[in-house]
Protein: indole-3-glycerol-phosphate synthase
Amino acid sequence: MSTKFYDALARAGSALIAEIKPSSPKVGPLLATTSVAAVAREYQMAGAPCLSVTTGAWHGGNLAMISEMARTGLPVLRKDFITSKRHLEDTRDAGASAALLTCTLLRKADVIRLAQDALAMQLTPFVEVASAAELDGLKLPDGAILAINNRDIRSKETDDGGIETGRALYAAARSVHDGLLISASGLLVPEDVKIAKVIGFDGYLVGTALLSGPHSPFETACRFIEAANTKIEAAE
Ligand SMILES: O=P(O)(O)OC[C@@H](O)[C@@H](O)c1c[nH]c2ccccc12
Structure:
């Protein structure tokens, strides 16, 4: 099953999903001196093939941000606690190309049913797991993206991030899923993306780190994309 978000990511040499998160529970407001539309354009100029946005209230987000970002022409992932077909319809109507389904929140049977519903609406299901138990027996439909979340969303992003969950669950994730496999969340520096690439991930989702720190979102995204493009033969 072919969908816009999946295809853009599969085609990209530098598979960075650049996220806008208006506010981080750990760092605080992240868009104080800029706007959603301006940051989306910066990510696009840096060469990101896909965008993501957290639309939940605890990230200071809202649904209207999706269409502001979709105006770039890039496919947009909606990150929120989506638990029903109605939420998927709202996601599609807001202009998104992909929808987050969080295994930490949903039963496996519901994840699979919602992933199929999403595909029927031309939305890419972006299914996130954070533990071996969530992966066990998870058989996603063709066209779904599987992401390993490096953060525990139950601790509301107050952890320090890192790539350890991705490293620990990589082999198990590959054994249950034939499609794209993404390392999501907690990637703090371009070096983390290089490590994720060496582990074998097909793509990387970065939010907070692109919007915090000393450089513009454009410059920071360029650095992460350069890391995503690094040839890794020598490291293997
Ligand atoms: O800012 P980070 O560490 O790069 O992480 C982004 C993102 O994955 C995170 O915000 C997230 C992961 N799962 C979610 C579920 C809902 C909302 C947001 C999320």
User: Anything to note?
Assistant: The chain has a mean pLDDT of 94. The pocket of indole-3-glycerol phosphate is lined by residues 19, 21, 54, 56, 79-81, 100, 102, 128, 149, 151, 153, 161, 184-187, 205-209 (CB under 6 Å). The chain is about 40% helix and 20% strand. The radius of gyration is 16 Å.
